Amino acid sequence: MNSVLQVLNSLPEYHHQYYEKGMQHIETCKKIPGDCFYCQVSKIFCGLNSGVYSKKLNKTLLINEIETEEEYQEGIKPFDFKILIAKDNQEFSSSRQQDAL
């Protein structure tokens, strides 16, 4: 899924449709986001192109009663997208490895 999404993101037509116009769709869509293909693809494309999810963040952990700071990146988790795609497709409903072709 990662490979396919990265290739689609590199195509100008998809980039324009789902990134450049994607935020507007997300803000105006009347559907439940988990049920809207356009919302899910747009969220992934916005994440890939905006850099929002690659910023380093800090979180405080409590280990053995000692507070410690740890850097992390939120990353992109296309779980909702996978659920939407797998909903009506038995081939994609498992966690088995799939060929990108």
Throw out a few tags for this protein:
101 residues; 16% strand; 47% helix; alpha+beta; globular; two-stranded antiparallel ribbon
Describe the 3D structure.
With 101 residues, the chain is α+β, with helices and mostly antiparallel strands. Helices cover 47% and strands 16% of the residues. It has one domain (2-91). The protein has a two-stranded antiparallel ribbon with strand order 1-2. The longest helix is centred in the middle third of the chain and has 14 residues, at 37-50. It is globular. The mean pLDDT is 84.
Query: Which band does the percent of strand residues land in?
Result: 15-25%
Number of domains: 1
Strand order of the largest sheet: 1-2
> Number of DSSP helices?
5
Q: Report the average pLDDT across residues.
A: 84
Largest sheet: 2 strands, antiparallel
Span between N and C termini? 10 Å
Radius of gyration: 17 Å
TL;DR of this structure?
By secondary structure, the chain is of the alpha+beta class. Helix content is 47%, strand content 16%. Strand 1 (56-63) and strand 2 (66-73) form a beta hairpin.
SSE topology:
Blueprint (H helix, E strand, L loop, with lengths): L1 H9 L1 H9 L1 H7 L8 H14 L5 E8 L2 E8 L5 H8 L15
Antiparallel strand pairs: 1-2
Helix pairs in contact: 2-4, 3-4, 4-5
